Each structure stands twice: as structure tokens, then as C-alpha cells.
Amino acid sequence: MFAVLSRMRRSAVLGTVAEEEPQLVEERSVDLFDYLNVVWRYRWMISGGTLAIMAIVGAIDLSLPRSYQASLLLKVGSMFVAGKGTGADADALVLIEDPQTIAQVLTSDGMVLKLKESLGLDQTDVSSLKDALSIKAIKSESDPAGSTLMELRLTLDNPKLVIDGLHVLARHLIEEHRPRYEAGVALIDRESQSMREKIAVNRLRRESAQQKTAEMGRSVKVEARFREELVANITKLTAELVQIRSSLAKSKSSDAILFRGVLQSLDANLSDLKVERNRSRLRTQEWEVQIRNLEDEQVGLDDQMADLQGRIAELAAYRVRLGNTMIRSEPVLPTIPMGPGVKREVAVAGLVGGMAVIVLAFFIEYLRNARRRVLDERTLMELQQS
Predict the structure, then answer these.
(1) Are 25 and 377 in contact (CB under 8 A)?
(2) pLDDT at res. 342
(3) Is 73 helix (H, G, I), strand (E, B) or coil?
(4) CA–CA separation, 76 vs 96, rounded Å?
(5) Do 313 and 379 have their domain in common?
(6) Which of 119, 218, 230, 103 is CA-nearest to residue 166?
(7) pLDDT digits (tens, 9 = 90+) for 94-115
(8) In a 3-state reduction of DSSP, which class is residue 81?
(9) Are 361 and 46 in contact (CB under 8 A)?
(10) Per-residue pLDDT tens over the stretch 18-60
(11) Looking at the structure, do residues 97 and 185 belong to the same domain, yes or no?
């Protein structure tokens, strides 16, 4: 009886195991509820682990020193250079120094060491201070010479030192560029003064030419009146000669000798008057030529003075646009630290840590299921063997 019951019980167990065997060996289909069930089962571990990670990251961030950042905007100055424009003799305004060169100078070891000494940062090494300094050029396509800006950005743990450091860099650059700017101003002033002196000389020459023109004009008028008198005398003398010749034709032979002597004398006077008239015409023509030359000279001097005045105006325009490197925008004292961002980093740590703990929970669940499958398979094998 007991043997029969034992065989029946063994058959029932084997039948039950045989029915469950496909579910033990093969993977069951997993849906969303299974995942949610795992999350709910390990909810305390997930929440506790996430909070622990957030607390650790927050404590680390709070232990780190605060960093403050400020920026200063510089306008790179321009200097006047003669003969550097598009033409052969054209002038131009060029940047006192190339922005790339400025960035290299301000971030050089020597400049960073000078900044370190000025701020009294004895505990800070040069490399870390160089990493805290950022120089960026901001160019304008429309006017590269006049609108090129440099942004100086500094990050330190003391807001006042940030402002002082930016001013140290700006003052150094301004003082370094000042001699080149002043040399350009001096060149423009010398050129303008030279133009003014030339204008003064040309004005004196023009006044002298005007005086000569006026004197020659008066001489021409006097000569014209003198020539009119000569023409009148020539006309009068010619009429007298005609009358004498007519009288000579009618006179007796005894009076002919007397008339011939008078005729010879009058002919000689008429010839002298005509010669003097021709000389007067030549003198007038020479004076008229000289007057035209003087007038042309005055026109040329006026053109030269106009060109010189235009040159002075051009130099004045260059001088107005000329400027030394200057601070375009003063830095603002930072009151809120830029780092470390405790809230942001704690939030990121919570998100990443929570995902990591969830993955760990699924891994633990996988290990437990694998262990359970191994035990079930071992039980099944023992039952089959027995």
C-alpha cells in the first residue's frame, strides 16, 4: 500500500515538473509590468542609492572653492601709416597690433607671471593662471581697423582679484600701444604743419603775382594811351606831308629846295614815330604775355593751395579716427559664483546615479533569477534520476 502511494506521489511530482519544465528552461516573455515590478521591489535601494550619490556629489561640490568670472572689452587702437594704402602714395589707418599677436602676448608666460605678481597670487602656478585667462578677438567685417574688439575673460576664486587682474592686463596693453598711437598723431601733425607752411608760401607768391599783374596792367594802359598819342601824331604828320607834297607840286622851282628840306625832316619824324609805335606794340605784347603767365601761375597756385587744403582736411579726418587702445566696456564685479554649480551637478548626479542604481537593481534581479533557474534545474535532474 505504501509502495503504491509512493509511486503515485512520485508520478504526480514528475508530472508537475514535466509540465513546468519548459517554463524553467526556456525564457518567459517579459513585458512592462515585469520591469515595473522589479523597480517596485527594489524601490528602497534605488531611492536610497540615488540620494546617497546626490549627497556625495553635493558634499564634494560644497567642499570645492567658489570661482568668479568677469570680462572686459577692449577696442584695439589704430595708428597712421604713410604710403600703406591701395595707391602708391596713399595713407592708411592700421591696427596698432594684430589681435592674434595681442592674444599671444597677454597669455605669454611673462605676462601671466606679471599678473600673478600684481595680484599677489603666490600659491597659484603660472599654468593654472594661464588656464583661467581667456582672450578672444571680435572682428568687424565693415571696418577691421576701427572696430576690432578684444574680450578679456578671467576666472578666479576672488571677485575683486578678477576685476583687478583684468585692469592690469588692460593697462599694460594700453601703455604698450600708446607710443605707436602718439607717433601716428605726431606724423599727422607734422604733415599738416608742412601743408600749412606750403600754403603760406603759395599765398605770398600769389600776392606777388597779383601785384606784378596789376603793375603790368597799369603799364599796358599807359602804353596804350602813349600809343594812341603816337598814332594821332602819325596821322597828323602824314596829313601835313600830303599837304606839303601838294604844295610842292604847285610851287616854283625856287621854293622846291625849301619844301624838300621840310619833307625830309617830316619823313624822318614820321619814321621815328612809326618805329616808336612798333616798339610800344612789342612792349605791350610782352607785358600781355607776362600777364597771362602770371595769371596762369596764380591759377596753378590756387590749385596747389586747394590740393593742400584737401590734404589737410584728409589728415584731419585721419586724426579724428585715430585712437589709442581703450577700454570699451568695464568689467562688472561678479557677485554670483560661476562654479561649481551645486544644484546643476547634484541634479545631474541624481539623474545619472538613479539610472545606474536601476541598472544595478536589474542586474541583481537577473542574478537571482539565474540562481533560481540553476536550483530548479538541479532539483529537476535529481527528481528524474530518483
Answers:
(1) yes
(2) 62
(3) strand
(4) 7
(5) no
(6) 119
(7) 888 888 899 999 999 999 999 9
(8) strand
(9) yes
(10) 444 444 444 445 567 777 887 888 888 888 888 888 888 777 7
(11) yes
* 55: nearest Cα among 339, 341, 342, 340: 342
Mean pLDDT of the chain: 81
- Dihedral of the alpha carbons of 216, 219, 224, 226, in degrees to the nearest 10: -160
Helices 99-106, 159-250: crossing angle, 10 deg rounding = 150
- Measured CA to CA in angstroms, residue 144 lies from 93, 99, 138, 255, 325 at distances of 10, 11, 10, 106, 14
Alpha helices in the chain (DSSP H): 2-25, 32-41, 43-63, 99-106, 109-119, 126-132, 144-147, 159-250, 253-321, 342-385
Please give the single-letter amino acid code of residue 342.
V
Residue 272 CA, chain-centre distance (Å), reads 82
Site of grid cell 600703406: 84
Beta bridge partners of 151: 73, 136
Interatomic CA distance for residues 201 and 232, integer angstroms: 46
- 246 lies in the same domain as 177: no
Buried b (16+ CB within 10 A) or exposed e, 54-86: beebbeebeeeeebbbbbbebbbbbbbeeeeee
Task: Identify whether 83 is part of a domain.
Answer: yes
What would the grid cell of residue 144 be? 577691421
**3-class DSSP state for residue 45?**
helix
- Residue among 75, 170, 77 nearest 115 (CA): 170
Contacts 24+ apart (CB under 8 A), 296-301: 297/205, 297/209, 298/206, 298/209, 298/210, 298/213, 301/202, 301/203, 301/205, 301/206, 301/209
pLDDT the model gives residue 258: 62
Q: Which domain holds residue 375?
A: 31-64+362-386
Same domain, 183 and 285: no
Of the residues 294, 320, 346, the one at which a domain ends? 320
Q: How far apart are CA 21 and CA 357, in angstroms?
A: 33
Q: Same structural domain for residues 146 and 121? A: yes
Alpha-carbon distance 150 to 141, whole Å? 15
Q: Is the bond preceding residue 99 a cis peptide, omega within 30 degrees?
A: no
